[in-house]
Amino acid sequence: MKYIVVLGDGMADEPIEALGGKTPLEYANTPNLDELSKLSEIGMVHTIPDGMKPGSDTANLAVLGYDPRKYYSGRSPLEALSIGVPMKDTDIALRCNVVTLSEEEPFEEKIIIDHSSSEISTRDCGILLKAVADELQDETYQFYVGTSYRHCLIWNHGKVLELTQPHDVLGQTIGQYLPRDEKLRAMMKRSYEILVNHPINIERKKQGLNPANCCWFWGAGTRPKLSSFKEKTGKRGMMVSAVDLLKGIAVGAGMGVALVEGATGGLHTNYEGKAMAAVKAVTEQGYDFAYIHVEAPDEMGHQGSVERKVQAIESLDGKVIGTVVEQMRKRGEDFRLLVLPDHPTPIRVRTHTSDSVPYLLYDSTCPQKRDWYYNEAQGRASGNVVPVGYTLIDHFLQLS
Protein backbone atom coordinates (compact mmCIF):
# COMPACT_ATOMS: atom_id res chain seq x y z
CA MET A 1 0.00 0.00 0.00
CA LYS A 2 1.20 3.51 -0.88
CA TYR A 3 0.07 6.68 0.87
CA ILE A 4 -0.29 10.16 -0.67
CA VAL A 5 -1.45 13.38 0.99
CA VAL A 6 -2.62 16.33 -1.12
CA LEU A 7 -2.58 19.42 1.09
CA GLY A 8 -4.35 22.49 -0.32
CA ASP A 9 -2.92 25.22 1.91
CA GLY A 10 -5.66 27.53 3.19
CA MET A 11 -8.23 25.91 0.87
CA ALA A 12 -11.10 25.96 3.39
CA ASP A 13 -13.22 29.11 3.59
CA GLU A 14 -16.60 30.56 4.52
CA PRO A 15 -19.76 31.00 2.39
CA ILE A 16 -19.29 33.97 0.06
CA GLU A 17 -22.18 36.04 -1.28
CA ALA A 18 -20.48 36.53 -4.67
CA LEU A 19 -20.46 32.72 -5.04
CA GLY A 20 -24.16 32.38 -4.27
CA GLY A 21 -23.53 31.60 -0.61
CA LYS A 22 -21.09 28.81 -1.42
CA THR A 23 -17.48 28.46 -0.30
CA PRO A 24 -14.76 28.41 -2.98
CA LEU A 25 -14.45 24.65 -2.41
CA GLU A 26 -18.19 24.17 -2.99
CA TYR A 27 -18.26 26.51 -5.98
CA ALA A 28 -15.18 25.27 -7.83
CA ASN A 29 -15.46 22.79 -10.70
CA THR A 30 -13.77 19.72 -9.16
CA PRO A 31 -14.72 16.58 -11.11
CA ASN A 32 -11.96 14.47 -9.57
CA LEU A 33 -12.92 15.33 -6.01
CA ASP A 34 -16.58 14.81 -6.94
CA GLU A 35 -15.80 11.29 -8.14
CA LEU A 36 -13.63 10.42 -5.17
CA SER A 37 -16.08 11.82 -2.62
CA LYS A 38 -18.62 9.16 -3.63
CA LEU A 39 -16.06 6.47 -2.77
CA SER A 40 -14.40 7.97 0.29
CA GLU A 41 -14.63 8.78 3.95
CA ILE A 42 -15.31 12.47 4.57
CA GLY A 43 -15.12 14.36 7.83
CA MET A 44 -13.71 17.29 9.75
CA VAL A 45 -10.33 17.57 11.49
CA HIS A 46 -9.16 20.19 13.96
CA THR A 47 -5.54 20.85 13.02
CA ILE A 48 -4.79 23.87 15.24
CA PRO A 49 -4.47 23.08 18.97
CA ASP A 50 -6.60 25.34 21.14
CA GLY A 51 -4.69 28.44 22.18
CA MET A 52 -2.06 28.21 19.41
CA LYS A 53 -1.91 30.61 16.48
CA PRO A 54 -3.41 29.27 13.25
CA GLY A 55 -0.36 28.94 11.04
CA SER A 56 0.81 26.65 8.27
CA ASP A 57 3.66 25.66 10.56
CA THR A 58 1.58 24.26 13.42
CA ALA A 59 -1.11 22.90 11.08
CA ASN A 60 1.23 20.99 8.76
CA LEU A 61 3.12 19.58 11.71
CA ALA A 62 -0.22 18.25 12.96
CA VAL A 63 -1.19 16.78 9.58
CA LEU A 64 2.16 14.96 9.50
CA GLY A 65 1.45 13.53 12.95
CA TYR A 66 3.56 15.82 15.13
CA ASP A 67 1.90 17.32 18.20
CA PRO A 68 2.54 21.07 17.73
CA ARG A 69 2.56 21.62 21.49
CA LYS A 70 5.52 19.28 21.74
CA TYR A 71 7.45 19.93 18.54
CA TYR A 72 6.78 23.53 17.48
CA SER A 73 9.65 25.95 18.21
CA GLY A 74 8.81 28.69 15.69
CA ARG A 75 8.21 28.94 11.95
CA SER A 76 11.47 30.47 10.79
CA PRO A 77 13.74 27.74 12.22
CA LEU A 78 11.90 25.19 10.09
CA GLU A 79 12.46 27.32 7.00
CA ALA A 80 16.09 27.79 7.97
CA LEU A 81 16.57 24.01 7.93
CA SER A 82 15.30 23.82 4.36
CA ILE A 83 17.83 26.30 2.98
CA GLY A 84 20.75 24.79 4.87
CA VAL A 85 21.26 27.49 7.51
CA PRO A 86 23.75 26.20 10.11
CA MET A 87 21.72 27.12 13.22
CA LYS A 88 23.36 26.92 16.61
CA ASP A 89 21.39 26.27 19.79
CA THR A 90 21.97 29.93 20.72
CA ASP A 91 20.59 31.26 17.41
CA ILE A 92 17.16 32.72 16.82
CA ALA A 93 15.74 32.46 13.31
CA LEU A 94 13.33 35.07 11.99
CA ARG A 95 11.32 35.04 8.79
CA CYS A 96 12.34 37.96 6.55
CA ASN A 97 9.58 38.73 4.08
CA VAL A 98 10.34 41.38 1.48
CA VAL A 99 7.02 43.20 1.36
CA THR A 100 5.40 46.16 -0.37
CA LEU A 101 4.78 49.29 1.70
CA SER A 102 3.16 52.52 0.55
CA GLU A 103 5.73 55.19 -0.24
CA GLU A 104 4.24 58.61 0.53
CA GLU A 105 3.99 58.68 4.34
CA PRO A 106 6.61 58.71 7.14
CA PHE A 107 7.79 55.16 7.85
CA GLU A 108 5.58 54.41 10.86
CA GLU A 109 2.52 55.68 8.97
CA LYS A 110 3.03 53.56 5.87
CA ILE A 111 0.49 50.92 4.88
CA ILE A 112 1.39 47.32 4.09
CA ILE A 113 0.02 46.70 0.61
CA ASP A 114 1.31 43.24 -0.35
CA HIS A 115 3.05 40.59 1.77
CA SER A 116 4.48 38.87 -1.35
CA SER A 117 5.48 41.85 -3.53
CA SER A 118 3.47 40.53 -6.48
CA GLU A 119 4.99 37.07 -5.89
CA ILE A 120 8.46 38.36 -6.78
CA SER A 121 10.95 35.89 -8.27
CA THR A 122 13.71 34.41 -6.12
CA ARG A 123 16.30 35.84 -8.51
CA ASP A 124 15.12 39.44 -8.20
CA CYS A 125 14.44 39.23 -4.49
CA GLY A 126 17.84 37.67 -3.88
CA ILE A 127 19.47 40.73 -5.45
CA LEU A 128 17.40 43.03 -3.25
CA LEU A 129 18.21 41.05 -0.11
CA LYS A 130 21.92 41.20 -0.93
CA ALA A 131 21.69 45.00 -1.10
CA VAL A 132 20.23 44.98 2.40
CA ALA A 133 22.71 42.43 3.72
CA ASP A 134 25.70 44.31 2.32
CA GLU A 135 24.88 47.19 4.69
CA LEU A 136 23.15 45.57 7.67
CA GLN A 137 24.74 42.14 8.05
CA ASP A 138 27.33 41.62 10.81
CA GLU A 139 28.40 38.96 13.33
CA THR A 140 25.06 39.25 15.14
CA TYR A 141 22.65 39.40 12.19
CA GLN A 142 23.03 37.18 9.13
CA PHE A 143 20.69 37.16 6.10
CA TYR A 144 19.96 34.04 4.02
CA VAL A 145 18.11 33.85 0.69
CA GLY A 146 15.07 31.56 0.61
CA THR A 147 12.35 31.40 -2.05
CA SER A 148 10.47 34.25 -3.74
CA TYR A 149 9.68 36.85 -1.04
CA ARG A 150 10.39 34.44 1.85
CA HIS A 151 13.86 34.75 3.40
CA CYS A 152 15.63 34.26 6.72
CA LEU A 153 17.46 36.35 9.32
CA ILE A 154 19.59 34.60 11.94
CA TRP A 155 20.08 36.54 15.17
CA ASN A 156 23.07 35.25 17.16
CA HIS A 157 22.23 35.09 20.89
CA GLY A 158 18.87 36.68 20.10
CA LYS A 159 15.49 36.56 21.81
CA VAL A 160 12.21 34.94 20.84
CA LEU A 161 9.92 37.94 20.43
CA GLU A 162 6.23 38.38 19.63
CA LEU A 163 6.25 39.65 16.03
CA THR A 164 3.33 40.26 13.68
CA GLN A 165 2.79 38.28 10.47
CA PRO A 166 2.59 40.73 7.55
CA HIS A 167 -0.34 38.94 5.92
CA ASP A 168 -2.36 39.53 9.10
CA VAL A 169 -2.21 43.32 8.73
CA LEU A 170 -2.63 43.91 5.01
CA GLY A 171 -4.08 47.33 4.29
CA GLN A 172 -3.25 48.61 7.77
CA THR A 173 -0.82 51.24 9.04
CA ILE A 174 2.35 49.50 10.18
CA GLY A 175 3.42 51.59 13.19
CA GLN A 176 1.69 49.56 15.90
CA TYR A 177 2.89 46.30 14.36
CA LEU A 178 6.60 47.08 14.11
CA PRO A 179 8.98 45.17 16.43
CA ARG A 180 9.44 46.59 19.90
CA ASP A 181 13.10 45.64 19.69
CA GLU A 182 14.84 48.86 18.64
CA LYS A 183 17.51 47.18 16.51
CA LEU A 184 15.05 45.09 14.49
CA ARG A 185 12.81 48.11 14.04
CA ALA A 186 15.74 50.23 12.85
CA MET A 187 16.84 47.48 10.43
CA MET A 188 13.36 47.33 8.89
CA LYS A 189 13.29 51.10 8.44
CA ARG A 190 16.77 51.14 6.93
CA SER A 191 15.87 48.27 4.57
CA TYR A 192 13.08 50.45 3.19
CA GLU A 193 15.53 53.30 2.57
CA ILE A 194 17.87 50.90 0.76
CA LEU A 195 15.20 49.28 -1.38
CA VAL A 196 12.67 51.97 -2.22
CA ASN A 197 14.68 53.38 -5.15
CA HIS A 198 16.58 50.22 -6.08
CA PRO A 199 16.72 49.76 -9.88
CA ILE A 200 14.79 46.47 -9.65
CA ASN A 201 11.92 48.21 -7.88
CA ILE A 202 11.92 51.13 -10.29
CA GLU A 203 11.60 48.63 -13.13
CA ARG A 204 8.88 46.65 -11.31
CA LYS A 205 6.75 49.76 -10.94
CA LYS A 206 7.15 50.48 -14.66
CA GLN A 207 5.80 46.98 -15.30
CA GLY A 208 2.82 47.53 -13.01
CA LEU A 209 4.20 45.20 -10.31
CA ASN A 210 4.39 45.93 -6.61
CA PRO A 211 7.88 46.97 -5.50
CA ALA A 212 9.63 44.78 -2.91
CA ASN A 213 10.65 47.71 -0.76
CA CYS A 214 10.95 46.60 2.88
CA CYS A 215 12.13 43.66 4.98
CA TRP A 216 9.56 42.49 7.52
CA PHE A 217 10.68 40.26 10.40
CA TRP A 218 8.40 37.72 12.08
CA GLY A 219 8.10 34.07 13.15
CA ALA A 220 11.02 34.02 15.61
CA GLY A 221 12.06 30.67 17.05
CA THR A 222 14.80 28.32 18.16
CA ARG A 223 16.35 25.33 16.43
CA PRO A 224 13.67 22.60 16.01
CA LYS A 225 14.04 19.06 17.26
CA LEU A 226 11.69 16.79 15.33
CA SER A 227 11.65 13.02 15.68
CA SER A 228 12.14 10.85 12.60
CA PHE A 229 9.03 10.34 10.45
CA LYS A 230 10.29 6.88 9.48
CA GLU A 231 10.81 5.81 13.09
CA LYS A 232 7.47 7.28 14.14
CA THR A 233 5.33 5.78 11.37
CA GLY A 234 7.40 3.02 9.79
CA LYS A 235 7.00 4.80 6.45
CA ARG A 236 9.70 6.34 4.30
CA GLY A 237 8.37 9.76 3.34
CA MET A 238 8.88 12.30 0.55
CA MET A 239 7.91 16.00 0.69
CA VAL A 240 6.85 17.77 -2.52
CA SER A 241 6.55 21.51 -1.93
CA ALA A 242 7.84 24.83 -3.25
CA VAL A 243 7.70 26.38 0.22
CA ASP A 244 10.74 26.47 2.52
CA LEU A 245 8.58 25.86 5.61
CA LEU A 246 7.41 22.47 4.36
CA LYS A 247 10.86 21.54 3.10
CA GLY A 248 12.24 22.45 6.52
CA ILE A 249 9.72 20.24 8.31
CA ALA A 250 10.76 17.42 5.97
CA VAL A 251 14.47 17.94 6.63
CA GLY A 252 13.86 18.00 10.38
CA ALA A 253 11.80 14.81 10.15
CA GLY A 254 14.35 12.99 8.00
CA MET A 255 12.08 12.87 4.94
CA GLY A 256 13.18 13.22 1.35
CA VAL A 257 12.59 16.51 -0.44
CA ALA A 258 11.66 16.53 -4.14
CA LEU A 259 12.93 19.39 -6.28
CA VAL A 260 10.35 20.19 -8.97
CA GLU A 261 11.26 22.59 -11.75
CA GLY A 262 8.73 25.39 -12.04
CA ALA A 263 7.28 24.85 -8.56
CA THR A 264 6.86 28.38 -7.22
CA GLY A 265 4.24 28.35 -4.47
CA GLY A 266 2.12 30.71 -6.60
CA LEU A 267 -1.03 30.38 -8.67
CA HIS A 268 0.86 29.26 -11.78
CA THR A 269 3.08 26.66 -10.16
CA ASN A 270 3.98 23.36 -11.85
CA TYR A 271 1.04 21.36 -10.49
CA GLU A 272 1.54 18.33 -12.75
CA GLY A 273 5.25 18.21 -11.97
CA LYS A 274 4.53 18.06 -8.26
CA ALA A 275 1.98 15.30 -8.75
CA MET A 276 4.38 13.25 -10.85
CA ALA A 277 7.19 13.74 -8.34
CA ALA A 278 4.98 12.17 -5.67
CA VAL A 279 3.88 9.32 -7.92
CA LYS A 280 7.47 8.53 -8.89
CA ALA A 281 8.56 8.69 -5.26
CA VAL A 282 6.14 5.95 -4.21
CA THR A 283 6.28 3.81 -7.36
CA GLU A 284 9.90 4.08 -8.52
CA GLN A 285 12.07 5.45 -5.71
CA GLY A 286 11.24 3.24 -2.75
CA TYR A 287 9.13 5.68 -0.74
CA ASP A 288 5.95 4.59 1.04
CA PHE A 289 4.47 8.05 1.62
CA ALA A 290 4.39 11.32 -0.31
CA TYR A 291 3.09 14.70 0.85
CA ILE A 292 2.12 17.16 -1.89
CA HIS A 293 1.80 20.69 -0.54
CA VAL A 294 0.08 23.29 -2.77
CA GLU A 295 0.44 26.86 -1.54
CA ALA A 296 -1.73 28.65 -4.12
CA PRO A 297 -5.15 28.58 -2.37
CA ASP A 298 -3.61 30.19 0.71
CA GLU A 299 -1.86 32.90 -1.31
CA MET A 300 -5.09 33.75 -3.11
CA GLY A 301 -6.91 33.90 0.21
CA HIS A 302 -4.35 36.37 1.53
CA GLN A 303 -4.79 38.42 -1.64
CA GLY A 304 -8.56 38.44 -1.08
CA SER A 305 -9.23 37.15 -4.61
CA VAL A 306 -12.31 34.94 -4.81
CA GLU A 307 -11.80 34.23 -8.51
CA ARG A 308 -8.16 33.19 -8.14
CA LYS A 309 -8.83 31.06 -5.06
CA VAL A 310 -11.43 29.14 -7.04
CA GLN A 311 -8.92 28.83 -9.89
CA ALA A 312 -6.28 27.46 -7.49
CA ILE A 313 -8.69 24.83 -6.17
CA GLU A 314 -9.66 23.81 -9.71
CA SER A 315 -5.98 23.49 -10.65
CA LEU A 316 -5.33 21.36 -7.57
CA ASP A 317 -8.25 19.10 -8.53
CA GLY A 318 -7.47 18.76 -12.21
CA LYS A 319 -3.69 18.88 -12.27
CA VAL A 320 -2.69 17.33 -8.94
CA ILE A 321 -5.45 15.01 -7.76
CA GLY A 322 -6.43 14.01 -11.30
CA THR A 323 -2.81 13.21 -12.19
CA VAL A 324 -2.14 11.28 -8.99
CA VAL A 325 -5.26 9.11 -9.27
CA GLU A 326 -4.80 8.45 -12.99
CA GLN A 327 -1.14 7.53 -12.63
CA MET A 328 -1.57 5.32 -9.56
CA ARG A 329 -4.42 3.43 -11.24
CA LYS A 330 -2.47 3.15 -14.48
CA ARG A 331 0.49 1.67 -12.62
CA GLY A 332 -1.73 -0.82 -10.77
CA GLU A 333 -0.68 0.40 -7.33
CA ASP A 334 -2.88 0.08 -4.27
CA PHE A 335 -2.99 3.46 -2.58
CA ARG A 336 -4.69 5.57 0.04
CA LEU A 337 -5.18 9.28 -0.68
CA LEU A 338 -5.82 11.98 1.92
CA VAL A 339 -6.99 15.40 0.71
CA LEU A 340 -7.37 18.35 3.09
CA PRO A 341 -6.38 21.93 3.85
CA ASP A 342 -4.09 22.71 6.76
CA HIS A 343 -6.32 25.58 7.96
CA PRO A 344 -8.90 27.96 6.47
CA THR A 345 -7.76 31.24 4.88
CA PRO A 346 -11.12 32.96 4.42
CA ILE A 347 -11.43 35.65 1.77
CA ARG A 348 -13.37 37.74 4.29
CA VAL A 349 -10.41 38.15 6.68
CA ARG A 350 -7.48 37.45 4.29
CA THR A 351 -5.63 35.51 6.98
CA HIS A 352 -5.68 32.14 8.75
CA THR A 353 -8.37 31.00 11.18
CA SER A 354 -8.47 28.08 13.62
CA ASP A 355 -11.68 26.46 12.38
CA SER A 356 -11.74 22.75 11.62
CA VAL A 357 -11.19 21.72 8.00
CA PRO A 358 -12.76 19.03 5.80
CA TYR A 359 -10.79 15.91 4.89
CA LEU A 360 -11.34 13.20 2.27
CA LEU A 361 -9.80 9.74 2.68
CA TYR A 362 -9.89 7.40 -0.31
CA ASP A 363 -8.70 3.78 -0.31
CA SER A 364 -8.33 2.16 -3.74
CA THR A 365 -8.70 -1.33 -2.23
CA CYS A 366 -12.06 -0.72 -0.55
CA PRO A 367 -13.96 2.18 -2.12
CA GLN A 368 -17.08 3.17 -0.18
CA LYS A 369 -20.44 4.10 -1.66
CA ARG A 370 -21.54 7.49 -0.38
CA ASP A 371 -23.88 10.23 -1.53
CA TRP A 372 -21.87 13.31 -0.66
CA TYR A 373 -19.42 15.86 -1.98
CA TYR A 374 -16.15 17.09 -0.53
CA ASN A 375 -16.64 20.50 1.06
CA GLU A 376 -16.94 22.18 4.45
CA ALA A 377 -20.72 21.78 4.87
CA GLN A 378 -20.81 18.10 3.94
CA GLY A 379 -17.73 17.41 6.03
CA ARG A 380 -19.62 18.74 9.04
CA ALA A 381 -22.79 16.86 8.08
CA SER A 382 -20.90 13.55 7.84
CA GLY A 383 -20.58 13.27 11.61
CA ASN A 384 -16.95 12.17 11.30
CA VAL A 385 -14.81 14.37 13.54
CA VAL A 386 -11.10 14.16 14.40
CA PRO A 387 -10.74 16.58 17.33
CA VAL A 388 -6.96 16.14 17.70
CA GLY A 389 -5.34 16.87 14.36
CA TYR A 390 -2.08 15.01 14.81
CA THR A 391 -3.94 11.71 15.27
CA LEU A 392 -5.41 11.72 11.75
CA ILE A 393 -2.16 10.43 10.25
CA ASP A 394 -2.41 7.20 12.27
CA HIS A 395 -5.90 6.59 10.86
CA PHE A 396 -4.69 7.36 7.34
CA LEU A 397 -1.60 5.14 7.61
CA GLN A 398 -3.65 2.38 9.24
CA LEU A 399 -1.58 2.53 12.41
CA SER A 400 -4.60 2.63 14.69
Given helix and strand content, the structural type is alpha/beta
Continuous helix count: 15
CATH class of the largest domain: Alpha Beta
Distance between the termini: 16 Å
Oligomer: single chain
CATH fold label of the largest domain: Alkaline Phosphatase, subunit A
Domain count: 2
Give the tally of β-strands. 13
Biggest sheet: strand arrangement = 9-8-10-1-11-12-2-13
How large a portion of the residues is in β-strands, by DSSP E?
A: 15-25%
Verbal overview:
With 400 residues, the protein is an alpha/beta fold. It has two domains: 239 residues, Alkaline Phosphatase, subunit A, CATH 3.40.720.10; 131 residues, no CATH class. Helices cover 35% and strands 19% of the residues. It has 15 helices and 13 strands. The strands form two sheets. Strands 9-8-10-1-11-12-2-13 form an eight-stranded mixed sheet, with helices on both faces. Strands 3, 4, 5, 6 and 7 form a five-stranded antiparallel sheet that branches. Strand 8, helix 10 and strand 9 form a beta-alpha-beta unit. Helix 6 packs across helix 7. The two termini are 16 Å apart. The model has no long low-confidence stretch (mean pLDDT 95).
